[in-house]
Amino acid sequence: MGERKYIRFRLWGEAAMWKHPSEALGHFSGAGPSPSNIAGILGASLGLKIEPTPENPRPVSQTLIEWLKIHQVKVASRLVNKGYRISTNVNAMKFVDQFVTFRLQRRSMDLPEYEVLVELNKEGHKELINALKKPYYQIYLGDSNHLGKILEVKTPTSLEDSNWAYKTNELEMEEYVWNTKFGTNGHRLVREGYWTYPAPSSKKTQPNFESCIT
Amino acid sequence: MKNKQNKSAEELVKDFNFSDNTQNAYILFGWEGIECRPNLDPFDGTLRMYDETQQVWTTDVHIKHHARRGIQAAAELDFKVKNPEIYYEKQGSEEEGGKARSVDTRVAAIKKNYPKIKTGDDVYKTCLDIPLFGFVWAKKGENFSRNGAINTILRPTTFHAAETLSLGRNNAFANNGAEASGSATVTSLEYGYFLALFEVNIPTLKENTANHGVFKNKSVNDWLNLMVKGLWRAYTTHRYSSFTQRGQYAQFVLGWNPKDESNIDPVHPRNLIELLPNPNIRNSKEAKEGLKAVLPKLLEGWQYSKETEAGRIEKKGILTEVIS
What we know:
The structure holds two protein chains of two kinds.
Chain A: E1 4-13, E2 15-16, H1 35-46, H2 62-70, E3 74-79, E4 84-95, E5 100-110, E6 113-121, H3 122-133, E7 139-140, E8 147-154, E9 166-168, E10 179-184, E11 189-196, E12 210-211
Antiparallel strand pairs in A: 1-6, 1-8, 2-5, 3-6, 3-12, 4-5, 7-8, 9-11, 10-11
Chain B: H1 4-11, E1 24-36, E2 48-50, E3 55-57, H2 60-77, H3 103-110, H4 120-124, H5 130-133, E4 134-136, E5 145-147, E6 150-158, E7 163-170, E8 183-201, H6 202-209, H7 220-234, E9 248-256, H8 269-272, H9 284-301, E10 309-314, H10 318-323
Helix pairs in contact in B: 2-7
């Protein structure tokens, strides 16, 4: 690794829906973004497009994966405010080609605010910090119904102890519900662990940096 | 004597002038709801409300549904588009029948004016709402989707605490076999002044509109004029008497490019309610006074400035009075 640099920013939205990867509709939001969610936000800021095909309309962006690998990007994140969920009842579609509808209750994070730290090589720092200050595409907090904004982008002079999210191999019964980080073995999603968001009042630690990709 | 339709048409003569030099642009839409029931919770049929502040809110899906209808009308009346089509349209739309349609039914209807349509890409390049709001081509084995360029970043919310009433009513006719008609309780919003803030992503809009087959060779500004005029028409000349749009009237549309988009302060009406001397607003007069307290702060946070304003449509000079 070359010289490492840091970027700090805040992530805000009216609501967020951090979905479990196996559930397309999203009925219960995780407490905050997983490292791969944050990777998507970085990619949208940089303007790195996905290349959909008829077989795979939502592929992972290979350009983004390469960018993250080249600059050896790692992220840390924490919940800044208390983190309540709000229920929204909506009509959804069960089978898209058969027009069977059903009602769904979505519990999204209400007015969430996060602090995100990015650790990366010096070579990628300027490009990313400029992109985060003026994101190319819209930022989604989990899905396209939940727009977000990136605020207060800066190069931090220190990394304080705080309630940073951390990775665990087992599910912990914290106050705030887990996020899972999934890898892929080429055939199906494999759960790698849990990205747990502790409450703001929890024990303070140094940031736990985690790679965005497997 | 000028009729109301002409008056609203006159308000639309002046075009907005959005720049495409910023990543985003913003559209703030304000409308009044009087004795209405916008977009109810599908589980229990009640108005959606923030419990702490008693502000009534509705969804982006609801407002976009009506905007689409207005966009179709604006395309025909303001832009002289022949046979403008929108994709997400309910069955029996002339009467706002309210029944949603399957993909095949919808495509069959569009084919009447555009017989060569086959694929999701064809539909996307024909319909006017898709480049703005996005879509999913819901056909098995033919995956295709487009992210919308315009979305609400603040869902439509009354900027004040709203009064709602529970009204009992009887059904006029008994169901088959029943001896007597039934009754129900419905909640009504007595008065609400809604604000909805749309964020437009200009790169996405450029990509989405690049090869449109019907609204051809149009600039970002043209598409945004279609949006603002459609939104205005949906709540003025082309309002429906449907349950969910009855009693709602456009007050203003304001568009701007942010003067410094790296310095947005995301002010939300839920936080601004504390600025109101009296949060319980019950009529237009009180709403105008309330807007004077709230709107300048909201616009300041979202980087509005007179210099970067793209344009406005307003009833009775409401904006001029409130933010000058």
